[in-house]
Amino acid sequence: MTRAITLHDVSKSYTRGARVVDRLSLAIAPGEFLVLLGPSGCGKSTVLRMIAGLEEIDEGSLFLDGEYANELPPSERDMAMVFQNFALYPSMTSRDNIGFPLRIEAPGDDPSPKVDATARMLGIEEILDRFPAQLSGGERQRVAMGRAIARRPSAFLMDEPLSNLDAKLRNHVRAEISQLTRQLGVTTVYVTHDQSEAMSLGDRVAVLRGGVLQQVGTPRAVYSLPENVFVAAFIGTPRINLLRGLVRAPLDGAMTVSLGKQFLRLPEPLSLDHQLLRVQQGREVIVGLRSEAVRIAKPSAARPGEVPLTGLVEHLEFQGHEVLVHFNTGSRPAVVPELEAPRQASDRQGVRRRRREGGTVLERLRERAGALRAGADRESGDRTGAVATLDGPGRPDPASAEPRVAGDLIVRTTPDIRLRHGMQVPLLVDLAHLFVFDQHGRRICPRPDRLPDLEE
User: Fold this and answer.
1) pLDDT tens for each residue of 344-378
2) Fewest C-beta atoms under 10 Å: which of 7, 18, 120, 343?
3) Taking the domain 233-331+408-445, which CATH number applies?
4) Superfamily of domain 5-227
5) Overall pTM surpassing 0.70 (yes/no)
């Protein structure tokens, strides 16, 4: 038996009233494998614990198979959890660890048949009589999974189960998890901060940031049509190229997106997506280009929809089957602020505002001095073309900018192309794979499902 899990406007707060999870709504179908993805501290493990009943829900509702389950104790939810740290009893053998929940549920029954069947499924028959201290990390994780599988629960809840394994073993166990969950057909909610795991395992991926759901969809949809700049930057290897741009749409000329020293000329007649960029005339936007959206080729080799660009080779990353080339195009990189931070910029601004309103005179003077220094840095950054970040509504904040990395554009290419540091190389940008985000970080090209109001 498997079950449907529905969260409706669920919120959770801890100390000082800060919401760890903020009005989260999700509907997980029976038998679905849903991955909760996000940076550390974004609330994904808290969501998992609320589903399991290990955390109380402050606001909102949890439904299991359509029935209200906020007050249902964990023992009656028929779910099994797989933890990050394995959570095996050190004084028990693998056989006893797997059979322990079976003995609790049915004290008079012999758990051996179910334990043996589970061990065969996981290929761990030869380690059933060993203690956890005698097992490798991968073997411990298989035992932990066996303990969950043996119960035949209605849902699996997995909290970063592979984070303590080395890279090679992680890939192997990941494939085993995918095969097992599909074989068993059990609803699975899987928490991870590794986007590679999320993309390879999930039927759908739910991206969280600061306790707020950013987007939910299939791995392909989340990658190819990110709702905002955070999702675009968080998903994809290498990370998407984000550049500051300025839309220029003269009435008597071609529309272009200026990238600093160079520009992208939008081909005519304009597509519907590109026509919608006219409302951004004169505004700064964020241009997103995946590494596969740019190729090394001369302008004469351009295909329909490709426009030329020039880059200076600054760094080469040899990956064996491919090479990642870091180019300097004279563009200004845009950085998503504190991508790995749990709280959003707007929350920090609110804290600063409350401190200004209720703090001491000395604290207010310090705040004002810091603001003046930040303003001076901002003017200096604009003059020098420093790396910009999007803080809150998307304003440049060089004071909190990340250190500049080699180049501003990463392009994926084949290892047979010979390049060297300092070489000037012609590039072609495929505008069919162009992302444009507004100053608030929302995607405006390709056009979103809901068109924003002109006043937004």
Assistant:
1) 444 444 444 444 444 555 555 555 555 554 444 43
2) 120
3) 2.40.50.140
4) P-loop containing nucleotide triphosphate hydrolases (3.40.50.300)
5) yes
